[in-house]
Amino acid sequence: MTSLELSQDAYVVAFFLFCISFILFVYAMPGKKMKTHDRARHERRWGRISFTVTAIGFGSQLVYFISRWIGAGHIPVSNMYEFMSFLAMMIIGAFVVMYLIYRSAVLGAFAVPLAVIIMAYASVFPSEVQPLIPQLDSVWLKIHVTLAALGYAFFAVAFVAALLYLLRTVRWDSGSDRRSQRWLEFTMGCIIVVIGFIAVVFSFRAADYEVIVNQKVETVENGQINSKIESVTYTMPPLIAPYNSEESSLEAVPSFIGMKLPLMEAPGWMKGVQAGRKLNTVIWSLLAGLVLYAAIRLILRKPIAKAISPLVQGLDPDLVDEISYRSIAIGFPVFTLGALVFAMIWAQIAWSRFWGWDPKEVWALITWLYYSAYLHLRLSRSWHGAKSSWLAVIGLLIVMFTLVGVNLVISGLHSYSGV
Amino acid sequence: MRFDNTKCECGHQNAIGTVLCEACGKPQHEEPALDEVLEMRYDGVARKSQKANPSIIDRIWNFFSSVKVAVYLIVITLIGSMFGTIYPQESQFINIDASLYYKQSYGTMGHIYYLLGLSHTYESWWFITLLVMIGASLVICSLDRVLPLYRALHKQKVRKHGQFITRQRIVYQGDIQDSPNTWLDGMSKSLKKRGYKIVRDEDALLAEKNRFSRWGPYINHIGLIIFLLAVLARSIPGWHMEYYDAFPQGQPKEIPGTPFYLQNDHFTVEYYGEEDMPEQFVKEGRVIAKLFETKATLYRCVDKCDELAAEPVLEEVMKHDIRVNEPLEYEGLMVYQFDFDLTPRLVAVKPVLENPQTGEVYGQFELKINRTETHYEVGPYTLELTHKFMDFGLDENGKPTTKSQDPNAPAFIFMIKGPGLPNEGEPYMYFPLQKDKVKFQQDVINGEIANKFDLHVQSMNDVTLSESTSYLNVRKDTAMPFIWIGAAISMIGLIMGFYWQHRRIWLRLDGQQLALGAHTNKNWYGLRNEVARALQAVDIEVDAKSIDRGGSKA
Questions:
Q1: Which chain positions lie within coiled-coil regions (chain B) (predicted)?
Q2: pLDDT tens for residues B280-295?
């Protein structure tokens, strides 16, 4: 077995271990019907078992990471697949740290599935080992990317704890705060959409779906209009064709469950070659998310957040609030060092300037400003509980946009992370 | 004046705006006394911004000293920065006409973006103003708080007012069994073991640790201010220099504004072979570079630097292999690999002057493309250079012009003087490259004189080519050390502030009755466990959670 094969196996093992530890963590959550004394013992005992499984999963991730490093000859954080897998590993790492401080099993029931989702999301991207381009060939790749990912991971754990706080404290009896209820359910819905996206990608991948649509692209250079044909590969049925698609290639698109495709063209302002395809992916994800959400609602017969709420009533809200804040407090210096200071040092060496307002740089700065606003509000203006939890939840949105959105929507110097 | 009497019952005279007496900690101006957890920020000491009757300067000070204002500034900057990432910034391009580019590339939306000035968001007046305001806020917020905080922590009274202790967030009250002295000894030992410094005053005790972590935020802010100042300092003339240039292989080229010359000795580009790439890439025919390297020599000019015709005298300073992540660095001068061009470029030719009728060779000379001499002696003839074109072309009016400073199509016009020619000489145009000679019809341009003279190169041995050209980015940034110092100080402050917490425990025995209060600026969970464990060591069993009264959860 080569080290790359070992690496892939370890990845799958880690994935399944986390699925198991997720179920165990949920089981470890104390039920309301138990006696207080039994409850504490049950949580301690099953918390320890689930934590052990998680720790073994973390070890398996380390095996993946190290064997891929050996097999590829460079640290595996150089493309989207590798980075997302690494981020999942760091989230588990950050969770392990927070668990060792606070011994909260409920945190695991939410942090572990987040890592599972991110691991699944990583697998959406091509997982082949790619050669390292000269720009990335530096010790700073190891230091900057890994430390930045660790910082982001702590913010993700803070999100988990904040979400727990909200699930625990938002009341569902009549006459209580409708706005919090709605936004909390919306947050749950967003998570379902992400899961929907992953489900769609893997379903069509399993079916080997592939359709090529040609697009006429016009570029203006020195006042001259050059037009050329670009081909766009769709791995999901094209509901939306690229702007200015070629008729003949559209006619070749097979119909999908009796529907004549594509339904429409992307609007004219979406000019990029891949813009139509990305819009199509977004629509598929939303559709799948909505279907999934509707199915869950049908089974539960109530909002998801309301259904989870009784499961977490045994929780001390002050404790999860503290965990959320503490996770940001631990992550903030790590993030500053990894994502800003070391990034500046590397940028100075590789691109000759420490700061160039590249979109990725700007979004890292936005993330940093956001969390510094969070810390000032919490430390100096006593924003805690619900207010600070909402901030931590929105924070993850900004983090995810910085990590994924910038690469998908805006391109820039960091675009060689490849999508 | 809102409060006339600022004297506490313990006899201490407090400044206006004091919340908790600086000496004994008794809450001021609370009638009737409440039971809520005390607001312990800056230990309740008055800040400069809390003056009654503020003047204009006080008002500006008050504005910037507000954390609320600071948060607003942060949030506005954050949102402003987002706008700058919608479309690429002008600064991402080396050479574009922004007024056309955004319209052509992004349509009407792009044009509006450009008209709003968002195509240079980060250089715009409002963005710079925001940064300066954040800087002001950093300075004033810090000064406004650090001085009172220093005062409060520097002279702490050990014996605190009963209300001060029992209204902390972490409180324990109970009776002790031992004699007060024995009990305090035991408790001191237990706290010392946990790293506390103990001060005792009869039956009262103050235990404190990691006070330095309180300075973390202020050290962080100092670092940020140095950083921001260093960024502004880059606009000082001479502190910041940057340009791109082509360095053809094999000849030193001047770095303007410095005494240095840089020579590209050899440029290499390597690509990954098919065996190193995933199948998918091979199928797509992708080419991935493995290495860009310019072997470079840096020279210092020691003589004849400013004389145009003379060769400058150069002295080698250092050699370095410039790669993407390994710039050349010398006395603050940095040279980076930026781009390359593998088209060969002409460096020099050694043509012969020949009579095309008789085949008689009058002589040979070396013609350098870059530092061309103005005067050549070739046999009985002299050639005087009158015009030189690096990249020959014709403009709209059909007049000869040079399209760039790169030697793509070099052309020379000489005045030939000598036997059988008029005194003022006859003009002769010479294209060293055969393709240009044909393209621009050298013989037709020269007319009559082409029958008398022919300049041409006899063999490839007489041609010096540079195999490739390396594009390098030359920079000098005098402010860089300050940027790094600022960043380092800021990091030290962050680590001090976030990875340690200032913890204080006040104890007071009134007879056998114990009152304990504890405070920290962060991590109450850690403090309450520590207090519970310290109490357990002296046989007082308490549940960590039960001594925490909640309240300010920072």
A1: none
A2: 777 777 778 888 888 9
Residue A380 touches chain B, beta carbons under 8 Å: yes
Whether B81 and A365 lie within 8 Å, measured CB to CB: yes
Give per-residue pLDDT as tens, A95-118.
999 999 988 888 999 999 999 999
Residue to test with chain B: of A369, A375, A378, A398, most B Cβ within 10 A: A369
Do the chains contact at A366 and B552, CB–CB below 8 Å? no
B480–A337: do the CB atoms touch at under 8 Å?
no
Tens digits of residue pLDDT in A46-78: 889 999 999 999 999 999 999 999 988 889 998
Residue with tokens 């390292």: A132
CB atoms A379 and B524 under 8 Å: no
Nearest to A293 by CA among A397, A206, A186: A186
Whether A216 and A338 map to the same domain: the answer is no
Chain A nearest C-alpha distance from B85 (Å): 5
User: Beta B375-378 vs B381-389: how paired, if at all?
Assistant: antiparallel
Is A341–B491 a contact, with Cβ atoms under 8 angstroms apart?
yes
C-beta pairs of B528-536 under 8 Å, 24+ apart in sequence: B528/B170, B530/B194, B530/B503, B531/B170, B531/B172, B531/B505, B533/B194, B534/B187, B534/B190, B534/B191, B534/B194, B534/B505, B535/B172
Mean pLDDT of B4-31: 77
| pLDDT of amino acid B2 | 45
B473 and B330, same structural domain?
yes
Q: If you average pLDDT over every residue of chain B, what do you get?
A: 85
**Do A133 and A70 reside in the same domain of the chain?**
yes
Q: What is the pTM of this model?
A: 0.86
Instruction: Name the residue facing B325 among A138, A333, A385 (closest C-beta).
Output: A138
State which residues form the domain around A384: 3-172+319-418
For B21, B146, B241, B520, the CA distances from B42, given in Å and listed in that order, are 12, 8, 45, 11
Chain B environment of A128 (Cβ under 8 Å)? 278-280
Residue A347 and residue A258 share a domain: no
Whether residue B4 has pLDDT greater than 60: no
| pLDDT at res. A411 | 54
Evaluate if residue B554 carries a pLDDT over 50. no
Same domain as B443, residue B414:
yes
